[in-house]
Amino acid sequence: MGSHARDGGVNFCVFSQRATRMELCLFDAAGTTELQRLDLFGPHDGVFHGFLPGAAPGLVYGLRVHGPYEPHAGHRFNPHKLLLDPNAREIVGQFEWRAEHHGYTLGHADGPFSMDTRDNATTALKARVAVPGTLASGSFNAPRYAPADLVLYEVHVKGFSKRLPGIPAAQQGTYAGLAHPASIAHFKKLGVTTLSLLPVQYCIDEPHLPSRGLRNYWGYNTLGFFCPDPRLAEAGADPAAVTAEFRQMVSTLHANGLEVVLDVVYNHTPEGNECGPTLSFRGLDNSSWYRLEPEARAKSENLTGCGNTLRVEHPRVTQFVLDSLRYWVQEMGVDGFRFDLAPVLGRTSHGFDPQAAFFTALRQDPVLAKVHLISEPWDAGPNGYQVGRFPGRFLDWNDKFRDTVRGYWLQQGGVTRGELAKRFSASSDLFHHGQRRPSASVNFISVHDGFTLLDMVSYSRKHNHANAEDNRDGRDG
């Protein structure tokens, strides 16, 4: 899927099960002027496709998708909105929240049931055809640590490399900074084996942040699932240079005996609920890409707390997620993934199922069967707490270990020595399902949710007032 340069041109392939027509829109290099529109062939088994002779890497494009605009039935096709190819390897433009990015007219009496006919192409994000990848996972000389030997260190690329002494100013807050000798020396001093990077895929800010002068620092709002976040690259880097910098970071870390695991967010997108914008997935095929309320299909099902939920049980969405994961392993060199709100990936119409189609496909994939798979084993939906119930090779975050150790350490909650011993003995009460090994429990005390270790022994309550969220954001401990 997506765009791929081939001998003599570029091949395009885009999924939409219910669209009736799809236009490929070509732009100048800056992505500001539309030059040509071409109809893609299809749909054939829900796929629109076409080969453009003479095209080459660097071509900038977007999509216009035609079909029924019937919000009550879950269909929100609107050809006035230029859409980003969800499989884009490179993204062009600087996103700004504007009213015309919505498929409906803001302020209209009919709300999200109205249709906005303004064209947003000038300010919409576009895809750029990438040079075909030439690197495979074997080229990175990756270390391979067994699950029982992992010492994970959760790292925010910007936060870590911005403050560490010894990193040149130009590389502070960047992928290059994370792979700087000063960073590597610090990691080795700690004795870690594996860096668990907080989200590094292309994300955008939530709509309420810019007006407050704020940015999405953490990255849990992914739009480009095949693109490294350009905000974490050296200043001025174009999309191809961002990718190259990321690859070099991985290669350097591997050469120094460090694995790289990515925190990934395949549970929702920045398009939000039914009142959100139409940037990509919603306009391509809302009812295929997203879970909708069964009795009110105009509404998005919100199992994530972020407004929408990707419909991973759909075969084409499963394919999309697997393609993205495989890309990060084969062409970017990473060693595994930590899945945010992971129960979403295994939800069916009957709730969470450890034998869901996504997990079966993941287990059978010859590339992904060899990498680390780590779950955040809870989501915001019914019966969302699934610690110890993930299948096969998954390792699960163990929040019971966190709470028990903290409680014992700080003498809170009446934690007994017996409870502490249980957590240090692999939490068999949680991980007895499916005869899982002791190494299936990822034991942690502090992560990005809540207090740092220093905060934990310094404060009795959070102080996040500078975030302009009335101190409501973040865990209370």
Task: Describe the protein's architecture and organization.
- This protein has 477 residues and is an alpha/beta fold.
- The chain folds into 2 domains: 2-128, Sandwich (Immunoglobulin-like), CATH 2.60.40.10; 137-467, Glycosidases (TIM Barrel), CATH 3.20.20.
- It is 21% helix and 22% strand.
- The strands form 7 sheets. Strands 12-13-16-19-22-23-24 form a 7-stranded parallel sheet. It has a 5-stranded antiparallel sheet with strand order 4-3-7-11-10, with no helix packed on it.
- Helix 8 packs antiparallel against helix 9.
- The protein starts with a strand and ends in a 21-residue tail after the last helix.
Question: Summarize this, please?
Answer:
The chain is 21% helix and 22% strand.
What profile does the largest beta sheet have? 7 strands, parallel
The outline comes out as globular
Query: Count the strands?
Result: 24
Strand content: 15-25%
* Corresponding CATH architecture of the largest domain: Alpha-Beta Barrel
Structural class: alpha/beta
- Give the strand order of the largest sheet, numbering strands 1, 2, ... along the chain: 12-13-16-19-22-23-24
Overall mean pLDDT stands at: 91
**Ends distance:** 43 Å
User: What's the gyration radius in Å?
Assistant: 23 Å
**Number of helical regions:** 11
CATH overall fold name of the largest domain: TIM Barrel
As a percent range, the share of helical residues equals 10-25%
